[in-house]
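Feature request, filed as a ticket because there's no other form

It would be nice if the structure record came with a short human-readable summary line next to the tokens. Right now we just get the raw output. Example of a typical job, pasted below so the devs can see what we mean:
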Amino acid sequence: MIRHTFLSLILFLPLVGCGNDRIDREAVVNRHRIITEKNNPRSPAQVGNGEFAFGVDITGLQTFATHATMAHWGWHSFPLPKGLDIKDFNGKLWDTYGRQVRYDDWDEDHPELSAWLAGNPHSLNLGRIGLVLKKSDGTLATLEDLANTRQETDLWTGTITSTFELEGTPVRITTLSHGEKDAIGVQITSGLVESRQIAVAFYFPYPDGSQQVNSTFDQPDAHTTKWVTAEGKFAHLERTLDDTGYGVSVSWTTEAGFHEVGKHNFQLVPSSGNTLEFVFAFSDDPSVETRLNFSECRQSSETSWKEYWMSGAAVDLSASTDPRWKELERRLVLSQYVMKVNEAGSWPPQESGLVNNGWYGRFHFEMIWWHGAHFALWDRWPLFDRSLHVYPDFLPTSRVRAEKQGYKGARWPKCTADLDRDWPHPIHATLIWQQPHPIFFAELDYRLHPTQVTLDKWRDVVFETAAFMADFAHYDAATDRYVLGPPVYVVSENTDPRTTINPTFELSYWQFGLRTAQVWKERMNMPRDEKLDDVLNKLSPLPVEDGVYVTYEGVEDMWTRYNWEHPALIGAFGMLPGDGVDVPTMGRTLERVHREWKLHETWGWDFPMLAMSAARLGQPEQAVNYLLEYPAFLFDEHGLVGGGRAPFPYFPGNGGLLYAVAMMAAGWDGGPDTDTPGFPDDGSWVVKWEGLKPAL
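Raw output as currently delivered:
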């Protein structure tokens, strides 16, 4: 039985594994430049800075594919239908050990209001920017008219170079993002510029309520685009969509004219020369004018990306003899790129990052771990910390949520936006595995920054989270133990919440959270909390049947009815450090999961979670296999994760890969005192790393 009486403080030093030579980081990154020759309407190449991202098709813009332009600040709500009032939402009562507890579930008495709350707020597509390409006869060119298409993404500088030919005339387009401002810079060079066969079109849509690009160009009267500034080679537009507003600035340095050619439709048309350069900038303040040129954007992009790649950790697998080394390294490099583009902004990211409007753009509190925890192990904490204000910001409303349900402390939401209002749904209402997350994040932060400032920063969040967790655990006097649920939805979200009790993963995470909160009490010279100790001492053990852990206590026919979706029971000794886990039992559990789970019906972070469990259990070969050998865990040419039942793209898979490999290379609390303990030691894998931090 693994029991933790204290948390060891690891002094994070600039460690280097497998040799003392520094890694040539530029060489590692450059050998995975993305080169494509075909248009992919599903998967964009992207430029961005973590807060803002721009997805492009094979032309380097959004000419033939409806990829999105998105920012973490870009939220919109449709007007509340006439006659509805948010105050009328009552959710649903769930029986909780004889108490009728009101949850933010679908309100059957107010279905229209529930539907509105589900879809609002949603993220915005800020605009579409594409080419107007004309053939020599004056007709518009199609994708099929382009020849010798090629696109290269230089990951080291964040630059996309796209080339093609139209009727034998070459076109070269360079696309990049400013490192700090929400702007893209574009340079187009071609004889078609001089012959006026190329222009750039800017289209502004209204949301259509879908969970993809969320755009329609068929409601021009539902929004406004006001051209407020026109001077020299600069124009500024103010966008208004119901209660949402944002600004758009266009700057150009070459000879061209900016024209309004229709409602919400503008064009930048060259007037001389064979080059067209422009910058398109966005701001959450409609009145802010952003004046930039292409050279400034290029310099900012190159500087910020070099700083990123030279910061934090790096991994070089090129000395390995296992032929799969290059694919694993490719996945690592591309994951670092897309996570920096999509997931380092002012709010926690949604599952599909800044690629589309999946789940209406809402972020999921249980997924914050998979999106961001890797930044700690790769020593890039500030990129994660930018969004963690969500916990102190939402602490007051989370206290209210807990109080209304009759609990102490703070109960965090499940699926929300830039305000703490949960999407009404039974899963969102009763899921609990997101609750200990902020304690985990606080511990990661403290290990990186063991100061009083860190303790003060997280104090209220840690203690209020623990207070809810302790109060949520129900005391069963008949058995003299505390139980979790019902009602509770487990990680896999595929069991009946009204009968589910004592899920394995959640029990282990509850132990971790309460144990760690007590350590924080001691660090702050405060007495231990008696209630937390009582729950820790009497919390139900992890449920075992036939010598293996099961998803929850008393589950029937688990290995035939519930052997699909996330196999979270093994995450108790993988993602988590194993509170309450008996290691031999977990070993048998992983063997059975490997043998009987429908792994083609799992997805995303499931495979890094399996890899971490295999690594902790001393099965490094299988750990590597979980990261590379399963069709349900695929990385496309741009590094975007899909496969299995995964929605596309699925960034928790990228974050999970980065966390798992960092752990497998740098180790974990209580792990073997060897180099790269999660990789095979037979010489087939030579893992050179620097700057990684051990996992908890």
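Something like this underneath would help us a lot:
The first strand starts at residue 16 and ends at 17.
The chain is about 30% helix and 20% strand.
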